[in-house]
Amino acid sequence: MFLDESRVQVKAGAGGNGCVAFRREKYVPFGGPNGGDGGRGGHVIFHADPQIQTLYDIGTVRTFRAARGEHGQGSNCTGRNGEDLIVRVPVGTMVKDEEGQILADLSEPEQMWIAGRGGKGGLGNQHFATARNQVPRKALPGLPGEEKELRLELKMVADVGLVGYPNAGKSSLLASLSRATPRIADYPFTTLAPSLGIVQAGEGYSFVMADIPGLIEGAAQGKGLGHQFLRHIERTRVLLFVVDPWDPTGEDESEEQRAQRVRDAVKALRAELEAYHPRLLQKPWLVAVNKVDLGRVVDPKLLPRSFYVSAQAHTGLKPLVDGLWIEIGKARAAAEE
Question: Are residues 109 and 204 in the same domain?
């Protein structure tokens, strides 16, 4: 199951109460206050764990509660701090408040963020002794921990994002290039959730490829799968437009007509990305003209930036991977500048 949205509640631990106590020792006529402070309540901490793939993996718990701090004790003994609760979430998790304001963007592996801070422990009566009041019977209670309602949204982090219309062959291409096993069938919208695969680019080199569910016209306005999966494209370094060049009616076409079909498809797909967020057009991109095993598609000179592949017949895959690896290298270098 893929889950990329979730609502959770976090309840940090309350601080322990301060203690009212007095020193009582034989042969010590003037004892004095020695009540210890309460311990801090436990934090609720979100931890971006590369081993967690979806928000479903965090379990069915929707309220995350940290332990409270222990109360202070006599002999100036401070209570133990409450144990922090570590909640492991996928890399790429964005945390928002109920109004949609972004509170944290856990986009890096092992990144941590305190979602709820534990309450401060109360002061023991040792802090309230004065010259006039040498026997204070006052201590402070611990403060409550933070409580929040949070929205979690997952944006997958991948080097290459496959973009195309339903049944263009994106899932088949991912399955051919990696060991991923996305759902594949000859009817639209078989991909209802993004799939990740590791593609070997050479000896000791690999990159992550994500199969984004097929777009339809108006996806940026929420039609079809709409915004639900368009946001996953935001975190990819390189876009690969997968296009089926063949006339769905089966009519015979010239190479120029098929080339124009590919150009029109890429133009329409880029328009949907621009409508969702213009920044997506700044990403480097290539085109995979799929299903070339069905016949001669088009003269390569008519379609620059394109690679001719057959996910079904496993042809043309090596040049495509090499081309993607070059673009990924450029994107990574630009990100480090």
Answer: no
For 102-134, what is each residue's pLDDT tens digit? Answer: 999 998 889 999 999 999 999 999 999 888 888
CB atoms within 10 A of CB 47: 16
Q: Are 94 and 155 contacting, i.e. CB atoms less than 8 angstroms apart?
A: yes
Strand order in the sheet with 112-116: 85-90, 44-49, 112-116
Helices (H), the chain: 170-177, 227-230, 255-276, 317-336
The verdict on 132 and 180 lying in the same domain is: no
pTM over 0.85: no
Query: What are 205's strand-pairing partners?
Result: 202
pLDDT at 159 over 80: yes
CA atoms within 13 A on the CB side of 306: 23
* Residue 140 backbone phi and psi in degrees, to 5: -105, 145
- Mean pLDDT (the chain) is 83
- The token pair that represents 184 in the structure block: 């594949």
Side-chain-side CA neighbours of residue 108 (13 Å): 5
Give the residue from 154, 175, 202 where a domain finishes.
154
- When divided into structural domains, the chain yields a total of 2
Dmax (CA) of the chain: 109
Positive or negative torsion for Cα 181, 192, 227, 242:
positive
Decide: 62 and 101 in contact? Cβ < 8 Å.
Answer: no
Q: Find, among 270, 3, 314, 32, the residue nearest to 156 by Cα.
A: 3
Task: Please give the C-alpha separations between residue 330 and each of 92, 238, 293, 323, 334, in angstroms, as whole numbers.
Answer: 22, 10, 31, 11, 6
One-letter amino acid of 172: S
